[in-house]
Amino acid sequence: MTEHQIPEVKADFSPEEVGKWGMVIDQDLCTGCQACVAACAMENNVSFVGEEDAGYGRGMHWVRIERFWEGEYPKISTSFQPVMCQQCGHAPCEPVCPVFATMHSEAEHLNMQVYNRCIGTRYCANNCPYQARTFNWYDYERPDPLNNQLNPEVTVRRRGIMEKCTFCIQRIRRAEDAAAAEGREVMDGEADPACAQACPADAIIFGRLDDPESRVSKQVRSGRGVKLLEELGTLPQVTYLKGGAGYDRNG
Amino acid sequence: MTVTANAQSHPHEEDHREHLMFDPRPRGEMNDMVMESMHTTSWKFWVVAGFLTVVVLVCLFAVWGYMISEGLGITGLRRPNYWGAFIVNLVFWIGISHAGTFVSALLRVFKAEFRRPFTRAAELMTTFGLATAGLTIFLHLGRVWRAYWMFPYPNQRGLWPNFHSPLMWDFLAINTYLLASTMYLFLPLIPDMAMARDRSEGWRKKAYRILALGFRGTEGEWTHLHKAMGIFAYAILPVMFSVHTIVAWDFAVATRPIWNSTIYGPYFVIGALLSGIGAVGMVLAVVRGTMKNMKYFIRPEHFDALGKLLLIISMSWAYFFFNDYIIQWYGGDGITRFLLAFHEEGPAG
Description:
Chain A is built from 7 helices and 10 strands.
């Protein structure tokens, strides 16, 4: 006899509370080199849609680099902002899914996307204020050598399914399992997602927000942090740092 | 034995005599006129029906099949517009379906006797419009072969559908309305089925006998039927309003700028009535122009009445259309204002 359980749609969050895993992106350090985009695509089996579809607006990268020009021509500066799923504590994408394909994980305070449940209504992507979700418009091909680098730990998605950044949950799980096997807590930096690992400028920092001594917690407290579209009340887990000079990188 | 459906002495005959306002013919003669149009068709009907059948089959199997096997990319949608023609179609057809029941139920509630010749066409339009709208939900899905996961049924995954989702409300509302409007269509149809049963032969007689549910036209049967139709006419009006406001909530509860507007509920209802009443007029024009003897039943006076209704509704719609802009513009949100200007001026603005 199966007991039907309705998963919680919203985590019980108050604005003071923070989720377990969080990310900090330092826009002063980001050079817009796209290494995170490439690393993420390789780690998470993101489809290569080809030049034509990417130009049409169907690129499936889970991270995108937003580019901002500041100032007028002679005195112009650029800043870059890698935007991925913000893993909102109060996510607009979650309640609108009719089949619980997008839902909240109470354990990690992350947004989950259950590919096998998705029926492709695309409401979540419409409702995401960060436009962080990508949809499989076709079954995209992987030409010969590329199929050999698929990550066996991540589901390969087919057409008609929504997907998005997972904070590399397979890496979080692996780190948690390793720590549990050794009877310790997960160490800072042990569960880095592909983007943080690949970032040559060390602009992406990932870690536990419930540990006040982790690098990510210290950076969140640094006072330079902003959250994207904070006024919508989505409680994002990604903090963007901007506008400081002469500060200590490690707290 | 079964002459009762057109018995002359029946009290409800008053209604039947009154509904042909201008030159009522004897009831038997009218029945014969209706039956004649049901029994005789010209080759033109088969040409049109054949053509439409081919169109539907090609669209349903060849085009939809291609889309299912290739993926939704062939719709031309892209980020950030994940919804396109199919959702537009869904809203449009639900709108069309609304006016049929609205006109019919409203006139029944107010006992407007002139309604009788055309309520049937309006109710049929409701049912078929809703069926079309229901179909577009399936066309819209990325993995339509998993569409049954929207149904609340006990399954091995241990999951109910998400009742927080506006799409789920939509799905339930459309199903409710489809059931209710089908019953609302069928109830007044029963005596006519009985009439057709008494006047046909062969397999038609068998089919009509099943559909007539053994209606013989006794006093008690008429009383029950009228009571049931009265209840349905009153009950279906709020259902109708709820369905279209729920469709509007799909947009109104979203976080997207421009969608996120409280005016959408009434605006959608009025828009539905506007397009739907227009569609009732078109259906009536086609029925009147192509079917035998229908010129006698459907009069210019009916089009006149529909036209007046259309005029009122179109003025209300224009008012809501204006409201849709003014409220959002007045709100002053930067992105919303940008989008409103973009709607007006396009990329050149």
